[in-house]
Amino acid sequence: MRSSYLLARGARVVALKLGKDGAYVATPDERRVVPGHVVAAVDATGAGDCFGGAFVARLAAGDDPFAAARYANAAAALSTLGFGAVAPIPHREDVKRLLATQRASEAHQ
């Protein structure tokens, strides 16, 4: 897989977007798919850019790559609920609410 190639050449984190299926994240120590979120998407314009921006912002804030991907997946999913690339970019509170709802749902399974 490409992540092995990139990690072997010095990358510390590799993140591959998988659309609605989430993201594949690889570090030298761990590799896994971070699941996406099921939403009633109306327009995916800018969702990948939203993921990328949110992912890098969370890494810069100190999140580990897998937590950053969880946050970025939620932000990208929420960005598909409106039309266009900018207007539907979610606020942090909305992303946190989706993540909390997901955690609560997983706890009841």
List the helices and strands and how they pair.
Elements: H1 2-8, E1 14-17, E2 23-26, E3 31-34, H2 47-60, H3 65-79, H4 92-107
Antiparallel strand pairs: 1-2, 2-3
Considering the chains and any ligands shown, give keywords for the structure:
single chain; 109 residues; mainly alpha; UDP-N-acetylmuramoyl-L-alanine:D-glutamate ligase; three-stranded antiparallel sheet; 4 helices; 3 strands; 11% strand; globular
Q: Explain this structure to me?
A:
This protein has a single domain, classed as UDP-N-acetylmuramoyl-L-alanine:D-glutamate ligase. It contains four helices and three strands, in the order αβββααα. The protein is globular, with a radius of gyration of 14 Å. With about 110 residues, the protein is mainly α.
